[in-house]
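FAQ: What does a ligand-bound record look like?

Like this one, built around nicotinamide-adenine-dinucleotide:
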Amino acid sequence: MNRSIVTGGAGFIGSALVRALLEKGHRVHVIDNLSTGNLDNLEEVADEITVHEVDLRHYDRIARVIEGADQVFHLGALPSVPKSILDPVPSHESNIDGTFNVFRAATEGKAGRVIYAASSSAYGDTEVLPKVETMAPRPKSPYAVQKLVGEYYATAFCGCFGLETVSLRFFNVFGPRQDPTSVYSGVLSIFLTCLIERRSPTIYGDGEQTRDFTYVEDVVELMLKAAHASGVSGRVFNAGNGNRYTLNETWALLQKIEGIDLPAKYGPPRPGDVRHSQADTSAAVQELGHKPRFTFEQGLRLTLDWYRADLERKTVSTKASRG
Ligand SMILES: NC(=O)c1ccc[n+]([C@@H]2O[C@H](COP(=O)([O-])OP(=O)(O)OC[C@H]3O[C@@H](n4cnc5c(N)ncnc54)[C@H](O)[C@@H]3O)[C@@H](O)[C@H]2O)c1
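The answer part, i.e. the structure of the complex:
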């Protein structure tokens, strides 16, 4: 049976991947320090997996888990541009030192391919859209630099030590279980909870910035494909959907779906934010078999249903605990 490691497996994307791996019959080990992730994300599958509550910065402890694994999906990271600006040290340590440790452990432990969760933030602002892998990176924030360094390490470990690696540059991933409770949360998780609670979201900047929103199941599917594709080791691929929507359009679409009229508030633009984002997916389509199944609106409706049900679950359990 395949033994797969998922770093960051208690997080939003990692927990969706854990479920998909279990469906495929893999034995799954999660490495996570629960800094931004949560074991609630793995609640229904807790009995089927092994969770190692370990920090990626502790080489010896993660090396023991990674040794001999068939695949390593490396998603563990502090995934926030603003956080990396306000408090850069923890991001640097988790995202660069932690990533180096994962590649080193996979090499020394003779593990199989490492699929690395890279980021479209590596592109920064480009004159041309969509963004294609051959463009020179222009990272604008410590987070973007950190994720780019991870890609460089992936390619260098492949070239120098023969480790199989594939880096997937995620664009704006959204879906169930994305944490909406922090100011650093992904924009859609905040929009959707505002929508359900009938509150106006704050849009930073004029709202005309664009994002290539990608539904989490499509990203998970691509990670599974990248684990097995041949002739791609050491490479970097865009893992977006190929579309782009402004934040203003997105909030308008959500209001239409709910049949409400609730104007957004606006705040100052955030440092490090990229203005436009859209993936050229040709390489991933041709070489990895990328085939996103969910339109933006389908993904939004599914995610909205999930947040609504989750909020109801939480309300019921709060009432029950109050007696
Ligand atoms: N969500 C997106 O739109 C997006 C876009 C580009 C790249 N990514 C990348 O995808 C990956 C997953 O992101 P996510 O959105 O699911 O975020 P998330 O915060 O939900 O998941 C990250 C997980 O990593 C864990 N983690 C953080 N630091 C750790 C450490 N030092 N040791 C062990 N575990 C640690 C957290 O506890 C969490 O469970 C990240 O690598 C992120 O950089 C995400």
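Follow-up question: can I read anything off the structure? Yes, for example: The longest helix spans residues 296-322.
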